[in-house]
Automatic annotation (TrEMBL):
Gene Ontology molecular function terms on file: ATP binding
Keyword Magnesium assigned: no
UniProt region (Disordered), positions on chain: 1-33
Keywords associated with the record: ATP-binding, Kinase, Nucleotide-binding, Serine/threonine-protein kinase, Transferase
The name this protein goes by in its record: ATP-binding protein
Sequence ranges assigned to domain Histidine kinase/HSP90-like ATPase in this UniProt record: 43-154
Biased composition (Gly residues): 19-28
Record-linked Gene3D superfamilies: Histidine kinase-like ATPase, C-terminal domain
Superkingdom classification of source: Bacteria
InterPro entries assigned to the protein according to its UniProt record, in alphabetical order: Anti-sigma-factor_SerPK, HATPase_C_sf, HATPase_dom
The keyword Nucleotide-binding appears for this protein: yes
Length: 160
């Protein structure tokens, strides 16, 4: 399997307040929540569609499905996963948390180089759009620096 660790779905409660950009990096969700956590193999691009499928399963009952937010979440997740695997040449970890207020997806890699949104190269139709899409479509997004590497995250509310 392209994605090493199995997903973990848990239900629990969380108090609001941890989900602000620049905060402690936890989802801006409260009440019952479901989680997905997957290790993504080094430079294994088969992990991209696997990550989308796992996220789709996690979001199956999410209120954002009817508004198209789940489709946006899949797109943005595939962009972050692709970036982590292509630009770092290292493993990565995908984490998604969905709750009553929304979804937070985070892709952590183990390379120190910060991501930079840049305009797409008009001569190349497939590169340079990932973070631009995240900027344009996510309700919030950011980068958290870790001792080793970083985590790029985005949030989507349940309703647009």
């Amino acid at each position: 399997m392209a994605i090493g660790a199995p997903s973990v779905r848990t239900a629990g409660t969380r108090t609001a307040g941890a989900g602000t950009p620049g905060g402690d990096g936890e989802a801006g969700v409260d009440g019952a929540e479901s989680r997905l956590r997957r290790r993504l193999g080094r430079a294994d691009l088969r992990a991209v569609p696997e990550a989308r499928r796992a996220l789709r399963e996690l979001l199956r009952d999410w209120g954002g499905r009817s508004s198209g937010r789940a489709d946006v979440a899949e797109l943005l997740t595939s962009e972050l996963v692709t970036n982590a695997l292509v630009h770092t040449d290292r493993d990565a970890v995908l984490t998604a948390v969905v709750g009553e207020r929304g979804l937070r997806v985070e892709v952590r890699d183990f390379a120190a180089r910060p991501p930079r949104p840049c305009p797409a190269d008009t001569g190349d139709g497939t590169h340079g759009r990932g973070l631009v899409l995240v900027q344009a479509l996510a309700d919030a997004w950011g980068v958290r620096v870790h001792g080793v590497g970083k985590a790029v995250w985005f949030e989507l509310g349940a309703e647009a």
